[in-house]
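Researcher: Here's my situation. A collaborator sent me these components and asked whether they could plausibly form a single complex. I don't have experimental data yet, so a predicted model of the whole assembly would be a useful starting point for our discussion.
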Amino acid sequence: MTEKKRETPLLDELEKGPWPSFVTEIKKSADKGNASSEDLLGVLERSYREKIGHWKHGGIVGVMGYGGGVIGRYNDLPDDFPGVAHFHTIRVNQPPGWFYTSDAIRKVCDIWEKYGSGLTNFHGSTGDLVLLGCRTEVLEDVFKELTDIGFDLGGSGSDVRTPSCCCGKARCEWACYDSMQVCYDVTMNFQDELHRPAFPYKWKFKFAGCPNDCVASIARSDMAVIGTWRDDIQVDQAAVADYAGSLDIAKDVTRRCPTRCMGWDGSTLSIDNENCVKCMHCINAMPKALSPGKDRGAAILVGGKAPIIGGALLSALFVPFINIDEDVEDLYELCEEMWDIWGEHGKNRERIGEFIQRVGLGNFLEQIGLDPIPEMVIHPRTNPYIFFELDEEEDE
Amino acid sequence: MSAKVEDVADAMFEMVKEYHGKKNLKALDLTKAMIKKFGDDECDKKLCKAAIRSLMDTGRTTYSYVGGSYIVLPPDK
């Protein structure tokens, strides 16, 4: 039985209001004669009516040689909605910082209108350019045409997911390292890990140029590389004085400093940089007067994740400072060490942050050969008992 | 290392065939099994990675996603 087309009273509600509507976009695609978009409207209306999702995902779907990049999606009502019986998602590795020429976007869209639904996500929450909806038999053709214009598939499954980064030095004055270059280098260095899944579960890299962390790397990635600096915040006292005319510096800046390391006497701003935790609040509040120090690099944090399986985790600091523009090889080595131990002992679908919680940070650090430092302490110990090795006492 | 990529790939392929329909194998399951089979002086993770790539590029095996990523026989085999 085929549903009568375009009776979509529930979807139509989502077109009301001043904001853009995904329903309107799907209808536009359907109006061009795209059968999958037409059936997508039908199945979605039915899902809203029945309050049941009609999608399932997974299985053996992909392109030759790759284990990631395509997420198989099928409809459980193929007889009613044959246009979306297969509706696979293709993740395309986005350029660092999401910079495209309009010509590149036109070419991608032309390919997608030729083979798929014509519907896209710019961009998915993974960071990838996401192409929504095609059949299994066109995957190789889409892949070939995408590679012909210089694009590659991104990650999916238990692999390195497509690394993503902020716009970095291309467009931001706070970037403490070249996040786009490092993102590109890491992507190229870990091509095998990106395309051939070999981990217990997914691994996400995100690169943020400064502690504002515009890509939310600390909460959404297994390895967050966040720009920082080691010396003093640069202060232009004359510009601070200019701000004093329009901004209550004591109320809105110094009293909001999380470590109260700033002072304002009405004419001069003082900063106890030893106690600055690089929160960026003062720099964001007075961008013309303050800027990060000159000795810039990045901190590496590990173990963050969003709550899909289990709860959300924030990353823990592993490396307080690295000159990553020059020492990116050190990041590769750290990854290899962590992947070895996680691959060996991690459970299926266990993210590295969960693995570290299970085995203990101390044990994990010992296994990967990283010395513990005070900056790694997330909170005061809750267990009053202290265990130590006898040989440590003898050494002392 | 003296084991050849092709030998390790063949051994992996036999293992995937043997377990087909019984247990899904991850890349790491195959890697551990090969290091045990050939010995760690003959075979390491890098060699196993090359063998898996060979299996995938020749189409003898493929990846499936069932909650995690597994190495399986292609549907037509």
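Model: Some features of this prediction you could bring to your collaborator: Chain B has a mean pLDDT of 92. The radius of gyration of chain B is 12 Å.
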